[in-house]
Amino acid sequence: MCTENHTLFCKSNFTDFVVLFNSCSDFSRCVRSEEFLNLTKFFFCSVLKIYNKDYYEVETCGGYYGEEIEGVYFENEKKVVEAFNEVLAFDNDVEKIKFVLELEYGYLLDKVKNAKVAYIQPMATKIIDLPQHEYFVKLDREVIDGYKNRKLPIAVCTECGGRYKLVDGYHRFVANKERATNQIIVLE
After folding, report:
1. Is 1 part of any domain?
2. Number of domains composing the chain
3. In this predicted model, what pLDDT tens digit does every residue of 122-179 receive, in sequence order?
4. The pTM is what?
5. DSSP 13-68
6. Which of 76, 82, 151, 158 has minimal Cβ neighbours within 10 Å of its Cβ?
7. Which domain holds residue 53?
8. pLDDT in tens, 13-46
9. CB-based contact 128:174 (threshold 8 Å)
């Protein structure tokens, strides 16, 4: 039996999260708030394994009709709450993107680290380059299939000589590469 005191994401904290993520940065170009909000929530949940059933513990107890569920507990709860509170402290969209990328990869590429502006833009799929071709060929087909036809921006990219270099989103890019255009987040 679990005796830990589990914190729950209460509605007021989530509302604060939404309000902050909907605020636009002071830069001359900024992301469209709702799109960025949805993408950031997706990244946050994906990176912290909130969608992964293997990170949940189900406890049961005896009931009138046999075993009943007593509680469901998320293994990474403390990490999620800490990351959630840290994201709430950021003033702008670029810092939020950097935080999520660093949380996922453990570091930031120099071009990402130095970015000052982030915006969402429709982009011709044919001008998005995949710099890690050896990673590209090893992608998990099941994950790719799960990303097909998503409405979220499919990738985080940096601009390089009129083309766009994929920084994050290989699975999402491959799942949607048949489209002529895709929404991407550009960091400058």
Report:
1. no
2. 1
3. 999 999 998 887 887 889 888 889 888 877 788 899 998 999 999 998 999 999 999 9
4. 0.70
5. HHHHHHHHHHSPPSSSS---HHHHHHHHHHHHHHHTTTT-GGGEEEEEEEETTEEE
6. 151
7. 11-187
8. 333 333 333 443 432 333 345 666 666 777 777 8
9. no
